[in-house]
Fold this protein.
Amino acid sequence: MRVFRSNRHIYAQIIDDTRHATLVTMSTKDKEFAAAEVKGKIAQAKQVGVTIAQRAKTAGITQVVFDRGGNLYHGRVKALSDGAREGGLNF
C-alpha cells in the first residue's frame, strides 16, 4: 500500500509490483468520500484508511506492505495506517 500526502489531500493505493498494476485506490478526492461529514485532516485520513481496507477486502486482499512514501510516520500517515488496520488489513 503506497501513501501520498499533499497539503490538502491524502491518497492511498494498493499496488501489485509483480504485475505492475494498481488494484485498489482511495483518496480524499474520491467521489464516494464525504469530506463534509468528516472534519479535520487526521480524521479524513483515518476514514480513507478504513475505506481502502474495505475495498481491499472486497478485492480479496488481506496482507499488504506499507510504503509511507518518505513521509514521517505520524499525523495523517499514521492515522491512515491505523484506519487500514481497523478495517482489517495486515501489515
In short: The chain has one domain: 2-87. The helical segments are 41-58, 76-87.
